[in-house]
Each structure stands twice: as structure tokens, then as C-alpha cells.
Amino acid sequence: MNQFRIVADSSCDLLTLDGADFVSVPLSIRTDTEEFYDDAIGITVLLMYVPAKLMTLRELLLCELFLLLIPMAAYPIREIFHIGKDRRKGQRSTALVCSAIGYLCGFLWSMLTPCSWLVHILFLSYVISIAALLILNAVFKLRASGHACSTTAPVFLLTWKLHPLFIIPSVLLIAAVYRSSLKLSRHTLPQLLIGSAVSLLACGISLLTYGLG
User: For 5-82, where are the E strands, in sequence order?
Assistant: First the structure.
């Protein structure tokens, strides 16, 4: 019988709706034989704070489209068209393509239309991170963790933009990602640390490009 584990292992998006800041903290359901990884699926934890107006409702919906819905489409697409002989490898390859499409479309949208500071930071960071991970993993075979990469910079932004005390849940979230990957033997500790370093580097380049907001 498969044992199910519910763990935080994906990106954490800082968003604003109707003047209230909240953070989308994704959870995934893992089994001993499968891992379902989605960018922001599972549960949304609302953290009500002072109106920061970091993102409009329109931007929120489009971000969810590019960062959530398009990457999520990989899983039904793989099952419908039976991509790859091995189901897990087929899911991974299809997810990579769908995520790249979603992130690139979002990046182009952020470049070609007037968008808030946070939208520019998010999409430029995602594009830089994907490029860096592809080079590190495909060329140098380092297997840097995409889960750690997609988590570290967003929780850094959360702590910086909302309150220093958010360092506590931020560290706990990253620790949950690390523990999950290590326990399931998805990555080694160095691979997780490389993923986090890529995330922070991409975020730093984005901040240098668009300023501190």
C-alpha cells in the first residue's frame, strides 16, 4: 500500500488581492512511486497584511495562468497522449516543456505590457532560473534542485517585503522542501543548496534590473 506524504515543495508566490497581501504556499501529494509537483496547487494560506498594492487583480489572474495553470496542464497532457514510455519520466519532460512555455509567455507579457514591479521580478527570476538549471543539469549533470530553486527566492521576497519575522515560516518552508527531497532521495544536500543559490542569484539579477521596488 502506498504511503502518502503531504509536503511543501514548490514555489511560494507573494500576491495581493483587494488590498490584502497573501502568499500561495503550494503543497504536493507524494507517494512511494510517484511525485506530483505543481507550481501552486494544493492549498493557499492567506496572510492578511497591510495593503501593499504589489499586484493588481488582473496581474494576479495572469500570473496564476502562466505560473500555475499552464504548468499543471503537463499532467493531463502526458496521460492523454502517453508521452514517454516511463510514466514518471514522461511527466517530468512534459512538465518541463509546459513550465517553460508558461514562464516564457509570462515573461513576454511582463515585458510588452505595463506591469507592477513584483511581476517583473517574478518572471525575470523564473526565466533566469530555468536557463541556469538547464545549463547546470543538462550540460554539467549537477541535478540542481528545481524545488529548492522555486522556493528560496520567493520566501526571501516574502520576508523582505512583509515583515522580518516572516523569516521563521520562510526557513521552515525551505527546511520542509529540503527534508522531503532528502527523505525521498530526489536530491542530495549539495544539489539542494545549488538550487537555492541559483534562485537567489536570479532574484538578485532581477533586483539589479528593476530596482528595489
Answer: 5-8, 13-17, 20-24, 27-30
Interior/surface letters 177-202, b for 16+ CB within 10 angstroms, e for the rest? bbebbeeeebbeeebbbbbbebbebb
pLDDT in tens, the chain (213 residues): 444 333 334 444 444 444 444 444 443 334 333 343 333 322 333 333 234 567 777 887 888 788 878 888 888 998 899 888 888 788 778 888 888 899 899 999 999 999 988 889 989 998 999 899 889 988 998 989 888 888 888 788 877 877 788 788 788 888 888 888 888 888 899 999 999 999 999 999 999 999 997
> Residue 135: which residues within 8 A CB-CB, separation 6 or more?
none
Q: What's the rounded Cα separation, in Å, for the pair 209 and 56?
A: 21
What would the grid cell of residue 146 be? 528545481
The closest of 97, 111, 113, 198 to 156, measured between CA atoms, is 198
Phi, psi of 23 (to 5 degrees): -120, 130
- C-alpha cell read off for 125: 527570476
Claim: this prediction has a pTM higher than 0.85: no
